[in-house]
Amino acid sequence: MSIFRSAPFRRDVRPFLEVIGRDAIKGEFLIALAVCSLFPASAMAQVVATEAEAVLSSDVKRDRAVQLSQQAARLYQVGKAREAEPLAAEALRLYREVLGEKHSDTLDSLNNYAFILEALGRAGEAEPLYAEALRLRREGLGENHPSTLVSLNNYAAVLNALGRAGEAEPLLAEALRLRREVLGEKHPDTRVSYTHIPAHLT
Description:
The protein is mainly α and 202 residues long. The chain is 79% helix and 0% strand. The chain contains nine helices and no strands. α3 (42-77) runs antiparallel to α4. The protein is globular and about 55 Å long.
């Protein structure tokens, strides 16, 4: 059992390691600092070194996820969605692993990956991802949060693209109504909703 699962070590050490890890102090210096500062005894030092390496590993994976997301976005912007797709998929996998399903960065990555799939003509694969992003944003942020409204509009739009207009139209109308209330008529997101919604629903 890790010593961090018993007081006082879990309370005292883990935040220290996480903070200095996020400050990008890497490699042997971080481990040596933790060992020397907190646990000079060799048995304890081994435990701290293991925990420090885990923190560093998470930082490296998160940094890699950010890099992949940026690369995917650049490729998509220059019309290379096919090349962007595997990068976006790997970024999503890393965000899920490091941050969990409900973190805002994970949900942004999930939405972006679904968007790329839809652009590639793979709306059937994008639909459950948009649905998942919408569900998790509703749970975490609430119905009226701008990010939730992005997911609502995206989910409705992909349903419409799949020929499921009967399901899409009430969601598109809801997205437009909420954006009017929350963001106002002139907000760019509200204008996007107007472009997606059938004329008889405005």
